[in-house]
Amino acid sequence: MVLLICTAAPQWQGAQAKEASRTPLSPRPALDAAAATHLARLALDCVHREYPNKVAHVMQDDTDIKPPRELTPAFYGCYDWHSAVHGHWLLARVAELFPAEPVASEARADLERSLTDANIAVELAYMRREGRESFERPYGLAWLLQLAAELRAWRDPQAQRWATTLAPLEAEAASRLKLWLPKLKYPIRIGEHAQTAFAFSLAWDWARMTGDAEMQQLLLAKAREFYLRDRSCPLAYEPSGQDFLSPCLAEADFMRRVLGQDTFDRWLSSFLRKIPRSGSTQWLRPAEITDRTDPKLAHLDGLNLSRAWMLEGIALGLPPGDRRIKALLATAREHRDAAWSAVTTGHYEGSHWLGTFALYGTPRRNEL
Fold first, then answer.
1. Torsion angles phi and psi, residue 17, rounded to 5
2. 183: exposed, middle or buried (Cβ count in 10 Å: 0-12, 13-18, 19+)
């Protein structure tokens, strides 16, 4: 028998509720112009590089035999569709944060090239083609929502125009997730694209930003159904050999978004029991990568980066002064340090997507 966290009803955050998990703590590292420029160059190198390309493509007939640039003309680069989407997110974020840097104008030019009405119309038709009901679900769809949220939040006339252009595809991605969530009976707890917890976090942040109460309610229902009763997550079983997401940490990072601070504190104490109160980092060591030219083995660099910002997110969800925060932040630093060299090596197997994971953990101007 599994017990609930407490006898009282959990404190859930609704669309209009104060986000109690925000604290004065600001552990996430600042991003300087040189680092931002480097990350942007990784995306600039790939968002319109068509090959090599891994297309997850259901074909109905010979008319579906086309090169990637014709199948999905906005998001055909960066090896695969979802990486192209979040490569554009990276460009938007850097151009917003560092508008005076030369790389910002290059980022704007590539966004302008991709985000046209004609390109998005083809993308929408492609997604709606028979047999593509599960296309990029949930990972790519959730990143598409993040790109849309980034453009919406950027108070710039050109960015607002891009947001308007992207809106039909954004609506389609949101609709597909909303249709899927009520039918999803079980969580997906793997460390790759299909994982639900990370996608739920991306979708939640989009829903809060846009005020989409329906998406928030669907995600809250799944948080209760899938995760609220979870206990003693087996961190010792991680990582699997080609993870780029931690099942345990991603779940905790999602739950800190939807639980009030006190409830999250109690839930985390049962879910991740072994977080030290001494500041030690020995409880969770960075993953070791044996071959960065292997696309699947290189996933582990992404795991170290995503663990870093998930650990920092978990720390943000705790009350100020909580004795676990020191260990969470120190462990995050070790993971980020272990992975940063991979973001600078230039192996396309990793560089086409690791830049996004390096940037995702840094705040916007109006965050934290």
1. -75, 150
2. exposed
Q: Which two tokens stand for residue 122?
A: 């083809």
Task: Calculate Rg over the CA atoms of the chain.
Answer: 20
DSSP 272: S
Domain ranges of the chain: 32-183, 228-368
| Nearest Cα residue to 202 out of 232, 173, 180 | 173
Model pTM score: 0.92
Distances in Å between the alpha carbon of 278 and those of 24, 27, 158, 332, 342? Answer: 21, 18, 49, 15, 30
- Helices (H) and strands (E) counted in the chain, each on its own, are 14, 0
Distance CA(130)–CA(271), nearest Å, equals 41
pLDDT tens for each residue of 80-133: 999 999 999 999 999 999 999 999 999 999 999 999 999 999 999 999 999 999
b/e 213-240 (16+ beta carbons within 10 angstroms → b): eebbebbbebbeebbbebeebebeebbe
What amino acid occupies position 189?
R
Q: Report the pLDDT value the prediction gives residue 24, as an integer from 0 to 100.
A: 40
| The dihedral sign for the CA sequence 47, 49, 55, 58 | positive
User: Which residues face 259 on adjacent strands?
Assistant: 12
Inter-residue contact 77 to 84 (CB < 8 Å): yes
More confident residue, 330 or 362: 330
- Cα separation, 27 vs 318, in Å, equals 12
